[in-house]
């Protein structure tokens, strides 16, 4: 067993075109932050990431493509996400409003609502999110 096989997976979005775009943005260096719902961690019984933790970035095909290291984790209300974080998500957002609109569409989507077990789930300014900053340590593909 290699060291990489012991790493927990780092999953961005759900498998498919969005995950593929996000993974490509990480590999190109354009994406160095990501945001998740605290409710997702709670629903899945997962621990929050920790600064210094290394994880295996997984593509839509289930393959490890890189090792990333979490460098910062903040838990904060959605309404407090700042422009630097939004821009560093590497998805082409020019403002926090654009970033939020894109994330709300994802979080209000059927896959997220199913993962949370709440078909009516919605977010607002007080919804707690997990804002992570990370860096690519090694490309494995």
From TrEMBL:
Coiled coil: none annotated. SMART domains: ASCH. Pfam families: ASCH. SUPFAM superfamilies: PUA domain-like (SSF88697). Residues 12-138 form the ASCH domain. InterPro entries: ASCH_domain, DUF984, PUA-like_sf. PANTHER family: CYTOPLASMIC PROTEIN (PTHR39203:SF1), CYTOPLASMIC PROTEIN-RELATED (PTHR39203). This is ASCH domain-containing protein.
